[in-house]
Amino acid sequence: MQEGVIIATDFAALEPRQPYGLHQIFGANTAMLDLMRANQKNLSLPKGESDHAWEESIETNRKSLSMAGALTISSYSVFGDTLYLSLSVQNKAGHKLPSGYPSRLAWLQLRLSDVSSQDVIYRNGDLSEEGVIAGRDQPFEPHHEVSYSTDDVQIYELVMSDLTGHLTTRLNAAFKPLKDNRLLPIGFKTTHHAIDTVAIFGNAVNDPDFSDDSANGQDHIEYRIPLNGAKGLANLNVSLRYQTLPSRWMKDLFLGDSLPTVGQFKSMYQGYENFHEIIDSISIDSIDLTPTGLAVLDKNLTFDIYPNPVSANTLYITLNDKITERENLRFRIMDVKGNLIRSGVLNDAIHLDTQMISGLYY
Question: Residue 311's Cα: distance from chain center in Å?
Answer without folding.
Answer: 21
